[in-house]
Design a protein that fits this description.
The complex is a heterodimer of chains A (250) and B (323). In chain A, helix 2 (18-45) runs antiparallel to helix 4. Chain A has 13 helices and no strands. The two termini of chain A are 30 Å apart. With 250 residues, chain A is mainly α. Chain B is of the alpha/beta class. Classes of the chains: A mainly alpha (250), B alpha/beta (323).
Amino acid sequence: MSFLALFRKELRSYFVSPLFYVVAAVFSCLCGFFFYTRLIFFVEYGFGVNILGNFWLAFLAGAPYSISMVLLLVMPLLTMRLLAEEKKLGTIELLLTYPLRDRTILAAKYTACASILLVLLAGTLVYPAYLYVLQPLPWAPLVSGYLGLLFLGLSFIACGLFISALTENQVVAAIATLGILLLFFVLTWNEAATSPPVLRVLAQVSMFDHFETLVRGVIDARDILYFVFFISFFNFLTLRALESRTWRGR
Amino acid sequence: MIVVEHLTKQFGAHRAVDDVSFRVERGEIIGLLGPNGSGKTTMMRILTGFFPPTAGMARVAGFDVTTEALRLRQQIGYLPETTALYPDIRVEAFLRFCADVRGLGRAGRARVTTVMHDCGLTEVAQRLIGKLSKGYRQRVGLAQALLHEPAVLILDEPTVGLDPRQIIEIRSLIGNLRGRTTVLLSTHMLPEVSTTCDRVVIIDRGRKVAEDSAAALSRHVAGSERTLVRVDGPAASVCAAVRAVSGVERVEVSNGMTERAVSVVVYSAEGTPNVGRAIAAAVVQQGWGLLEMRPLPLTLEDLFVRLVTSEHGSAPDGTAAVP
């Protein structure tokens, strides 16, 4: 009951603020633009046997013109206010003196933001649908690709929510989140700068490598576990950050 | 209803609350009086289960603030100091949200209507909270604290920043709860205490300095009365003459000395009647002009100076004052 009330309030505050609409518009426009330009590119120059498969990989995980990169840019803007705003307004004190567990507050905020992520991703479903009508292609990469996007987004939220719990400045929260996420994303991109043993370790930590496997149509328990661990770890940190009021002064 | 025993809260090297003990009985309205930064808010945050104390014990409505914080929070209504509210939500919607978060269910709807009526919010029910005046926002804060008919109401500076009319309204709202709800409110204003509270706990720099009923406190405050007397005459002789009046304990020349007139602050013992009349008579007898004579009200600062620096340092209830 209290979870539902909190969840509704969080969702509502997204829909009453212009930020969500601007973010959604930017996200949709960029995705549409990248879909169009990438598709044209692969149709014109996509030598090889698996043109659509390669296109799908590039559209979801290519750098920098892909859904995942746009998601990386916009998600910090959706997570920045979650706790920072409550701290700024002082309403966090109200919530924390209500008969609520910290984890209920966290769960409501996380779920509300996850719902917004679903709305954004649902908007992009027109692209695979259009593609499928144009030229039927194996559906496994489509499904696992979206699974990858979902896990990616959920990880972004977990990290963003944690950063938002540390500051009462939303801009600081957004930029710090963007920095951390970008680092986790591009960790293995420059292979020349790392020795092979280091690269093997980095590949385990890198978000991109786990995401890419999913987009290729391979659903591996290790990749799923990575994201589950990433999300749990940051949610754990957020809970500790909320709880920190009990062992230190403000 | 509220039991506080040897409560201490440490923030690093800073001790915000230092070994404070007091009790509040059911239905009492008690004031926590102290200057800004004396630990009032910290104390209230402990009592609402926001954070636990470093040492000591506190129980509110029978629940321990550390181990039973969740059940304790069901029993209390809290108005934070900053009147923290969401600005982009309408009054009624906000109160419904609060009722839902508290899990009041269907009964919550009726309570929202009642509380809005009690707090005079009915006509602004559909206004955005961010657009309301500070007085109305304070009432919204009070309304959310009253929604679930809490056993204990904790109000952090409920009248700060309000205009005099709003202050009277909030005070009467709190006064209406007398006998039904236990109220702990904090303030740094003396009149607040004497008009609203049954009992007062005075804290300074985290320590309890005194605890007494409001009436006894005013008596204590009035313990020695101060009168400002401005006389058209030579300073030294004026002091001597006034000093000689029976009932006068001490005479201080205040800074307001002009060429001819002298201002003196006269300290007289409590309960000596007609000291003023005697002083006036003495002045006139000497042939000086009595230009001004008025009682000096005691400010909170004076009270603190008195309580904190008094050497025999014993407040009326026997609480030792801090040297």
